[in-house]
Amino acid sequence: MITPLDIQNKEFKKAFRGYDIRSVDSFLDDIIEDYERIYKENIELKEKVNFLTDQIRQYNTLEETL
């Protein structure tokens, strides 16, 4: 999986009549910001899913005991 740091460290070769470096850098900065937010949110949601899965197991065990 690509990480925000991978995007930040990505370098493109310079070529004659290539893209405007400043506009590419600006666009990459926007992508990094959004991707980092989504990346962190994904990690938090995975942790929440694991927590809730554990709770369900506990409730199922309790139910079987009763």
Care to describe what's here?
This protein is an all-alpha fold. Helices cover 77% and strands 0% of the residues. The mean pLDDT is 90.
Keywords for this entry:
single chain, 66 residues, mainly alpha, rod-shaped
Give the arrangement of secondary structure elements.
Blueprint: H1 4-9, H2 21-65
Round the Cα radius of gyration to an integer and report it: 22 Å
The number of helical segments is 2
Low-pLDDT regions: none
Q: Which range does the strand content fall in?
A: under 5%
Give the helix/strand class. mainly alpha
What shape does the CA trace take?
Answer: rod-shaped
In terms of quaternary structure, what is this?
single chain
Q: Summarize this, please?
A:
This protein is 77% helix and 0% strand. It has helices at 4-9, 21-65.
